[in-house]
Here is the input.
Amino acid sequence: MRDNEVTDKHGNVIDRGDYVSTKIRGGTHEGRVEEVITDLQRAEEVGVKNPPKIRFENKDGKMVAHNPGTLEVDETEE
Here is the structure.
């Protein structure tokens, strides 16, 4: 594993294009990863705090950012 790799809660590397999900408030947020934010400058540009963060569009069309340790990569989703 490279130093800049970000992993999900099971230790799977998260890359742009992966399908991820997390349980939140009685439901789930899920979607395809659009960006893996690892540096503070980029985090500030897109309005997220405390990188690393994973940004993806959820099923409602809203862009969300989550801590990678709360996510699961769904390897069955194409």
